[in-house]
Design goal:
The protein has no helices and 3 strands. It has a 3-stranded antiparallel sheet, with no helix packed on it. The chain has one domain. It binds copper (II) ion (CU).
Length: 57
């Protein structure tokens, strides 16, 4: 899998860590796995969490 617009790609088993800017990203399958491969996508929504907003800091 890979994330469009991010420097992250995993071919096969594995794991990775990436820091993303807030926004929407498309995750797609990078291994030609059979019928429907081109449609194997997901949307990742990355939001900024405001930890200090409710702490009156
Ligand atoms: Cu696939």
């Amino acid at each position: 899998m890979a994330i469009e617009g991010a420097d992250l790609k995993i071919d096969g088993d594995g794991e990775a860590t990436v820091t993303l800017e807030a926004g929407e990203y498309i995750i797609y399958c990078t291994i030609p796995c059979g019928g429907g491969h081109e449609e194997m996508t997901a949307k990742l929504i990355c939001r900024v969490k405001h930890f200090l907003k409710d702490k009156n800091v």
